[in-house]
């Protein structure tokens, strides 16, 4: 039984599992200390240093004179209450490292912070009894952040691609060097930013009230993954253009544009995204009428998407003194004003409108009807009207455009880390490096062991010992020799293995001895993909004759199934390598690798590619001829059916079978009876007559259709480069 005069802290300390409460509640019976900020105490001490008495400083700043006296005599006075494990200086070093990691795109969480403290304590040789194995608890990390709340915050992070993180200060400085020249003496009313975004059909998640203990509460609400593209544009002084809406459809209907915002425009495209036609129409119908009325130079700032621009569009804008300024690649999260400050509140307001619709009149609709969309856009503009101008101006200011200030963007990039020589900082840096190594260099996954079906009757259990001898036998032989080695070879292998065990050979030496053994007993052999083929005799290209019979072996892969197949084939023709058709030279790169060929193709006569000599390579898969080879030009090419990196997109090189998109018939695609000669002849035909309906290079296909003269000029320049003639 507890006595009345027993101290209050005794039973609390004896309770098992007792921990420090997260929110400390002051005992009303204890003494109340007056709290002063460090800044107020330092100001009072400064007055004392300049000759003011302790009592005068006490009356002036409202701090008891005894406090000032103790502080003046002992500058290293500890704070009231329990002391932290690390000193203030040590914690400050860790805070700086946490901020540095976040700036460089690798922010750390509470667990990472605890690991850093553990590594630091281990590195300094400190042992903290209250930490298990020097590992702080979660409460330590929570209070660490709370102690440094003026510099640290806990937030939910967003993921960005490495391409965006690769934007450097040099890229930003080059961009602003040009921007300052262009925007010199240009008023904010003549600077505009345009950007397209999409409004989705999903109102998103929200916090709700649920039963305690319910881990995954659900809300009944129809939604879909569809979205509608909209082009927004605004000036640096805060004026917003009417929206330009693009539906995903083949046709337009009158109800899709009624009841909407005044001045809004509506269009459609097959993909639902902006293409060159939609963008040109936006410039002509939305931007041009406003910009033409403004005096002086006008600038449209946005991303440089090739699908947006055409020479005719740029020429038309230049007639009205309108110029385009393109943002650095992968930097829109830093340099696009609408992205930085406008789209987030816009989409927040959109989700509220969408949620109100789906929880009431639209609760049974699978998606938003297009005839209601204009009305919702009108409501959206009304809901953002209050803060619209302020948000737009903030975006231009944060992106350093108006007023011009590159430091606004540069301060958002990670800065230079200055190394110092203090011992504590060295250990903190080592702790952070140790943790980042674990992030970057994770443990290598164990090698996957191929499974083998075992013959076990239904209902019977098995144990590992039942198959230990079989597993050991499989694991001991890592060379995957051909299964049809004769009995004499197997006996010699067993003798060799016994002698190798006695002499303790390494695995590499063992492989060499076995390979030598097979070569002595089975004639020539060849290894491919850890598979050894015996009784193989090398044949030079000139040694092959028509009507010869050859054994062809290759690896066929179907999903996770891998099988070696063997066929006997007859050589029907050698026309390609020995007597190639006009305009083609092709053959294996070397006699040791027949899976990689090189080719030279002459541009067909009467075309813009006439006279050119275009090098290419063909890569044959292991299961050829069941699968087609891949062809890639190794020189610069500009063609509707050739990707920017030189890969050829043609029906004959597509996998056999029906086209999933229904565009090609199975007869046009690859089949095992096709030959390399036919592939190269098809490519020559493709150079002469491009297929612009299914373009691998969209820009080339568009130029081929709309500006044939410009296309021919580019092709002629490429021809001259292939011949080594200056362009």
From TrEMBL:
Interacts with AUP1 (via C-terminus); the interaction recruits UBE2G2 to lipid droplets. Interacts with ubiquitin ligases AMFR/gp78 and RNF139/TRC8; recruitment to lipid droplets by AUP1 facilitates interaction of UBE2G2 with AMFR and RNF139, leading to sterol-induced ubiquitination of 3-hydroxy-3-methylglutaryl coenzyme A reductase and its subsequent proteasomal degradation. It comes from the Eukaryota. It comes from Callosobruchus maculatus. One of its GO terms (biological process) is ERAD pathway. SUPFAM superfamilies: UBC-like. Accepts ubiquitin from the E1 complex and catalyzes its covalent attachment to other proteins. In vitro catalyzes 'Lys-48'-linked polyubiquitination. Involved in endoplasmic reticulum-associated degradation (ERAD). Required for sterol-induced ubiquitination of 3-hydroxy-3-methylglutaryl coenzyme A reductase and its subsequent proteasomal degradation. Its EC number is 2.3.2.23. Pfam families: DDE_1, HTH_psq, UQ_con. CDD domains: UBCc_UBE2G2. The keyword Transport does not apply. This is Ubiquitin-conjugating enzyme E2 G2. The active site is at residue 649. GO terms for molecular function: ATP binding; DNA binding; ubiquitin conjugating enzyme activity. Residues 461-503 are annotated as: Disordered. Residues 563-724 form the UBC core domain. SMART domains: UBCc. PANTHER family: UBIQUITIN-CONJUGATING ENZYME E2 (PTHR24067). Keywords: ATP-binding, Nucleotide-binding, Transferase, Ubl conjugation pathway. It catalyses: S-ubiquitinyl-[E1 ubiquitin-activating enzyme]-L-cysteine + [E2 ubiquitin-conjugating enzyme]-L-cysteine = [E1 ubiquitin-activating enzyme]-L-cysteine + S-ubiquitinyl-[E2 ubiquitin-conjugating enzyme]-L-cysteine.
């Amino acid at each position: 039984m507890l006595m009345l005069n027993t101290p209050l802290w005794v039973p609390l300390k004896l309770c098992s599992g007792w921990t420090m409460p997260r929110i400390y509640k002051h005992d009303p019976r204890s003494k109340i200390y007056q709290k002063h900020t460090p800044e107020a105490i330092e100001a009072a001490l400064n007055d004392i240093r300049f000759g003011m008495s302790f009592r005068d400083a006490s009356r002036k700043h409202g701090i008891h004179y005894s406090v000032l006296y103790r502080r003046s005599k002992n500058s290293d006075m500890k704070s009231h209450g329990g002391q932290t494990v690390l000193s203030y200086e040590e914690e400050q070093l860790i805070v700086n490292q946490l901020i540095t990691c976040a700036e460089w795109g690798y922010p750390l969480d509470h667990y990472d912070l605890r690991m850093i403290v553990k590594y630091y304590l281990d590195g300094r040789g400190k042992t903290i009894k209250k930490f298990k194995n020097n590992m702080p608890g979660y409460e330590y990390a929570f209070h660490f952040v709370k102690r440094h709340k003026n510099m640290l915050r806990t937030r939910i992070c967003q993921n960005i691609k490495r391409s965006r993180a690769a934007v450097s200060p040099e890229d930003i400085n080059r961009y602003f060097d040009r921007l300052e020249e262009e925007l010199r003496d240009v008023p904010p009313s003549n600077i505009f930013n345009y950007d397209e975004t999409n409004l989705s059909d999903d109102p998103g998640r929200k916090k709700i009230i649920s039963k305690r203990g319910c881990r995954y509460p659900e809300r009944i609400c129809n939604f879909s993954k569809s979205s509608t593209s909209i082009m927004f544009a605004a000036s640096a002084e805060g004026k917003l253009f009417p929206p330009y809406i693009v539906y995903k459809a083949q046709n337009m209907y009158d109800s899709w544009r009624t009841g909407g915002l005044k001045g809004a425009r509506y269009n459609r495209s097959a993909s639902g995204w902006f293409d060159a036609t939609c963008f040109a129409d936006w410039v002509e119908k939305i931007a041009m009428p406003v910009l033409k009325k403004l005096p002086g130079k006008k600038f449209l700032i946005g991303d440089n998407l090739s699908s947006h621009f055409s020479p005719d569009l740029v020429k038309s804008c230049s007639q009205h003194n309108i110029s385009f300024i393109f943002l650095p690649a992968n930097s829109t999260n830093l340099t696009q004003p609408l992205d930085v400050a406008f789209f987030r509140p816009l989409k927040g307001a959109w989700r509220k409108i969408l949620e109100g619709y789906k929880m009431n009149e639209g609760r049974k609709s699978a998606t938003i009807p297009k005839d209601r969309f204009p009305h919702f856009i009108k409501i959206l503009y009304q809901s953002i009207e209050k803060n619209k101008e302020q948000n737009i101006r903030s975006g231009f200011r944060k992106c350093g455009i108006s007023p011009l200030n590159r430091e606004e963007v540069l301060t958002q990039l990670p800065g230079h880390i200055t190394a110092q020589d203090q011992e504590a900082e060295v250990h903190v840096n080592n702790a952070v490096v140790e943790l980042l190594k674990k992030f970057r260099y994770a443990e290598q996954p164990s090698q996957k062991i191929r499974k083998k079906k075992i013959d076990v009757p239904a209902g019977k259990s098995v144990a590992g010992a039942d198959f230990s001898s079989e597993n050991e036998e499989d694991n001991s032989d890592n060379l995957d020799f051909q299964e049809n080695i004769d009995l004499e070879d197997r006996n010699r292998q067993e003798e060799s293995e016994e002698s190798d065990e006695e002499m303790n050979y390494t695995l590499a030496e063992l492989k060499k001895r076995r390979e030598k053994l097979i070569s002595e007993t089975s004639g020539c052999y060849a290894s491919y993909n850890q598979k050894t083929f015996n009784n193989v005799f090398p044949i030079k290209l000139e040694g092959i004759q028509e009507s010869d019979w050859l054994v062809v072996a290759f690896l066929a892969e179907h999903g996770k199934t891998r099988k070696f197949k063997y066929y006997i084939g007859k050589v029907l023709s050698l026309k390609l390598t020995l007597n190639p058709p006009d305009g083609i030279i092709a053959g294996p790169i070397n006699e040791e690798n027949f899976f990689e060929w090189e080719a030279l193709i002459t541009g067909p006569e009467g075309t813009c590619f006439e006279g050119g000599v275009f090098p290419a390579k063909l890569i044959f898969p292991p299961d050829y001829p069941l699968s087609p080879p891949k062809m890639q030009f190794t020189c610069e090419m500009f063609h509707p059916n050739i990707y920017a990196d030189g890969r050829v997109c043609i029906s004959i090189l597509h996998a056999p079978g029906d086209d999933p998109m229904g565009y090609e018939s199975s007869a046009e695609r690859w089949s095992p009876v096709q030959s390399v000669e036919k592939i190269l002849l098809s490519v020559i035909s493709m150079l002469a007559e491009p297929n612009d309906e299914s373009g691998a290079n969209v820009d080339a296909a568009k130029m081929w259709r709309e500006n044939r003269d410009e296309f021919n000029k580019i092709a002629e320049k490429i021809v001259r480069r292939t011949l080594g003639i200056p362009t």
